[in-house]
Amino acid sequence: MKLSVIDRAIAQYADLSDPEAAFRLKLLAPILRETAKIADDLPENAMEAELPDAEAVEALRRGADPIMTTGGVKLSAAVFADVVARLASVHEEALRAEEFNVADIDWTLFASDDAVALLSRDPEAFLTDAVEAALAAGMPEDVVDVQLIPVLSMAVRAMLTDYAEAVSDKLASGEDPVVDFERRLSCPVCGSEAAMAVVGPTARSGNVKQLCCLRCGSHWKFERIRCAHCGDEAVSDLRYIHDEADQDHRLHVCADCGETTPTVFVSGTFEQVSPDVEAVVLGALEAAWREAEAAKAEEEGAKA
Q1: Binning pLDDT at 50, 70 and 90, where does residue 304 land?
Q2: What is the C-alpha separation between 276 and 1, in angstroms, rounded?
Q3: What is the chain's mean pLDDT, rounded?
Q4: CA contacts within 13 A on the Cβ side of 213
Q5: Confidence class for position 301, pLDDT limits 50, 70, 90
Q6: What is the SS3 assignment for 202?
Q7: pLDDT by residue (tens digit) across 243-282?
Q8: Fewest Cβ atoms closer than 10 Å to its Cβ: which of 92, 101, 151, 160?
Q9: 43 phi and psi, to 5 degrees?
Q10: How far, in Å, are 80, 152, 188, 252 from residue 35 at the CA level?
Q11: Intra-chain end-to-end CA distance of the chain, in Å
Q12: Is residue 173 scored above 90 in pLDDT?
């Protein structure tokens, strides 16, 4: 997660035609930039974790339990609290600039020793618990969506991204272009489901698809013709859809499970891509597709 890559991507999409995507990118740009800055300057005591050795790397490629679920990562509650406070300040300033009503949130509640112990094992469970606790305490849903989730999500990302990228580099290093196993569906670091995919050129293997975890920042190779959600490999069940004016951003749609994988096709290397920015752009395509599918279903239901 490099600041220069994020800045270049934000500039690239300065003139997005979809107004909602353009507004969302404008709103998230400050916190994305700050997350990259924090990740680049974390103190040494932010995390206790070892990179996997060669045997563990091969096991992770083949679907072994994610590193964090096995206790391989311990995060500092004190550092996490500082990161949350810093990101909250930046994001709340961006919200005020767009005339949002900013809630007075006690961010320390989400950085207790118990909360960070859960985060160290399962970031998805940590975020789910945080949202449920906030809603149970009476926090409005719009505040949860616009203020709480972005801050906590990016704080998690800031803490984990350097480690996740280092693990990803080890997974990619020395892997044969053709393997005798199906590549994993879940993140090898934190266990989260992939948020999107990037297809781009490599020096050894031509165009390769990589799945991206936006929770921790890891990425790993994946089969081109396979659903990233259910693993279906039937060509007849899988298709790409895209806007005629933009063939680089597509949805990989699986007829078997009904899920979609937002996918961007790039001409440069993976290191030149900002998955976080691309996810915002792809979100507009996915929203339009789901709206069209809902309208189609409603029309078919009316005819029945």
Answers
A1: low
A2: 9
A3: 93
A4: 30
A5: confident
A6: strand
A7: 888 889 999 999 999 899 999 999 888 889 999 999 999 9
A8: 101
A9: -70, 160
A10: 12, 11, 22, 29
A11: 50
A12: no
